[in-house]
Amino acid sequence: MAKESQYIYNPETSSYDLYVPSSLTKWTRFGIVVLIGLAFFFTYFWLWNGVLKKNTPKTAILERQNKVMLASIAEINERMEDQNAALSELQERDNVVYRSVFGMDEIPQAVRNAGFGGVDRYADLRLFMNADYLITTRNRLDILTKKAYVQSLSFDDIQALSARAGDMANCVPSIYPVVPTKSMQQTSPFGYRSDPINGGAKFHSGIDIGGPTGTDIFCTGDGVVVRVDYNYYGYGIVVDVDHGFGYTTRYGHLLSASVMEGQRVKRGDKVGELGSSGRVTGPHLHYEVIYRGNAVNPWNFFSTDITPEEYKDMIQKSRSRG
Prior knowledge:
41% of the residues lie in helices and 24% in strands. With 322 residues, the protein is of the alpha+beta class.
């Protein structure tokens, strides 16, 4: 590039001399201009951000977008809180009502509320601004999703059992184990009582029904015989029937058993005869209802308004059905 030349007046010679600037002088001026521009820019940036606390247009746009995002995440957290409260109520009703009715074990809260451990599931979020907030929200969403999934599986199980509601009605031990005549009376209630042999308070896990030796004892619900045993110091000849849905019944102190282990029985089928085997003071039936591993009061299941004639008719129908 040609150098720019110019004429400069020389007072000593009273003439104009030709002056050609050197390349160094030209680039020096250019550098000074650049430095002044940079100084002006950084001074402006310092005044705008450091003194006036203003953001650049791009930073301001990003901050506005960030505020909108945080507001959206906060709204999502509020909705998850509402959904979690509704799901917790559903879980409680599921454990206490639905699963209980069908004799199913409760789902432990430790299983329903289990989190996620092991591998860092949220490593992709740690590079973002407000990473802790994002990770907490994502974790809550994952837990809520899992809780909903566990609840859906529980409802699937309940739906499958509800299709067998008629079977359950036949399985629940809801009748008296003997023909309800005046000669068959309860001689000992459920709960704490004075031990008839050793004395002192002792929990009685069933009821005792006294009557004539050899009286027929009937199964109180459909099920499978899971135990036929003899215990000299306990219930003597005893029969246990598993009815499913969490229910088991026990018939103790029998004179003899009329069933075998593994045998399927219907409500009204004969399981044995009243006797005085085992540890007793006289002939009677010890009858228990066990629900989900715990002894419960059999009187809560009896249809107390059934007459002896209706009871005998039911037994007859059961025998003809078999």
